[in-house]
Amino acid sequence: MNPQIMTRRIAVFAFFCFLLSPAGIAQEMPVVKPETVGLSSERLERIAGTVQRSIDDKRIAGAVTLVSRRGHVAWFKAQGMADREAGKPMRTDNIFRICSMTKPITSVAVMMLYEEGRFLLGDPVSKYLPEFKNPKVLVKPASGAPYTIPATGEITIRDLLRHTSGITYQWNTDLGPVYKDANVANGLLPYDGTIEDSTKRLAGLPLLFNPGEKWEYSLSVDVLGRLVEVVSGKPLDEFLRTRIFEPVGMKDTYFYPPDNKMERLATAYTYYDGKGLNRFPDTPITEGAFTYSADYPVRGPKKLFSGGAGLVSTAADYARFCQMMLDGGKVGNTRLLSRKSVELMTGDQLGKINSGQDFGFGLGFAVNGAKTPLAELGSSGEYNWGGFFYTAFSIDPKEQMIVIFMAQLHPTGDLTLDRQVNQLAYQAIND
Fold it and tell me: What is the pLDDT of residues 346-377, one digit of tens each?
């Protein structure tokens, strides 16, 4: 046989073997005509019109939107500019700072270790991170100086997953200044230290309330990132890469993108009334005790792997992660989580615990319709979250639908485009 023909046949055979492997299956979600998955092409176009209005009104520079149903992508569109000043159009493969959309990924890592029998969710985290032993709670009397008292119980791993730990963020008026003075990382600034350094500093500070008493959005998932490191014996970035990103096919998701992908990182913008849309400044923005920047993925020591805020990703990569969850923890023939773990993570875990919100919260995800009637189009049991620089996702098991919205904006000036895109995906259902 002709050697060239033989070489070609071997290459074709190898290619098909790759496609049939779990990694190959994970590489691309198939793109189909919307009508084949019960969506209207005409109605989906309303997403483009609404996004374009925000671009034309100079509320955002650009965005990427994606809608998939029944495992098939029915809508995937880039609009506007990734870098307005440089004249760089937005592309579907642009990379975005996903910030708190890191939290569900870290939560999956925790649950993978849980499934290996490494711990129980009710275990005190101090069993694995001793610095959290004997927590104290801040008391602010009506008069006189604040003081601390022993907490009524230990922080459990479940508390960290559902944000009932008593930990908070730097924007909290009571503890934010304490966190800042102690040099606790928030994940949105270059940081000269590791997640171990920051977590140990956090562990020595008081809690906002007794563990399990309330819901408070917090640095809890950064603590979970450190838990993953201690229990697995691997740095968080390595665990996520080898155990989640590679099996799922998330080839553009990193804490710190490599130099050859940096040009795909979308530019961040700010919007203030009276000032309009402007490129994020070169210096950090400070709001009270909370300081944040847009350059943390590209500058600084790059040693902090923030499990609560640090990742960058693409719309396609995050859709693959969402599809894994929608498929009950599987990617092709590779299982990351059991179906029962996915059920546990995506059901309300708060019960009667006061959250001050109209949504329930599971283990890493907000849960729609768990506490109050639906306020907009959607389904009870749809789970979701968003990110600080204006990214969002939703996963609907009933409709087998995923919606991804990616922009780069903060402050947003009360823009509701992310929620409108989600609503417009639902109104396109046509079966």
Answer: 999 999 898 888 899 999 999 998 878 888 89
Computed on alpha carbons and rounded to an integer, the radius of gyration of the chain in Å comes to 22
Integer Cα distance of 128 and 231 in angstroms: 7
The 10s digit of each residue's pLDDT in 4-29 is 444 444 444 444 443 333 334 344 77
Q: What is the CATH number of the domain that holds 134?
A: 3.40.710.10
Helix ranges (H only) for 116-208 are 157-162, 176-181, 195-203
Sign of the CA dihedral running 125, 127, 128, 131: positive
Taking Cα atoms as reference points, which of 253, 225, 266, 234 lies closest to residue 85?
Answer: 266
Question: Mapping DSSP to helix (H, G, I), strand (E, B) and coil, where does residue 255 land?
Answer: coil
Find the largest Cα–Cα distance for the chain. Answer: 92
Do 404 and 340 share a structural domain? Answer: yes
Q: Is the pTM of this model over 0.90?
A: yes
Token output for 389: 């620089």
> Is residue 5, in this structure, part of any structural domain at all?
no
Ordered alpha helix ranges (H), 175-270: 176-181, 195-203, 220-232, 236-240, 246-248
Which residue segment(s) compose the domain that 310 sits in? 34-101+249-427
Per-residue b or e along 53-74, where b marks 16 or more CB atoms closer than 10 Å to that residue's CB:
ebbeeebbbbbbbbbbbeebbb
Contact predicate 180/168, CB 8 Å: no
* Residue the block writes with tokens 């949504």: 359
Helix or strand or coil: residue 426?
helix
- Neighbour count for residue 77 (Cβ, 10 Å): 17
Q: Is residue 408 part of a domain?
A: yes
Give the chain's length: 431
Which helix H or strand E contains 74, and what residues bound it?
strand 72-83
Residue written as token pair 């990103």? 245
Count of CB atoms within 10 A of residue 374's CB? 12
List helix spans (H) across 21-156: 22-27, 41-56, 102-115
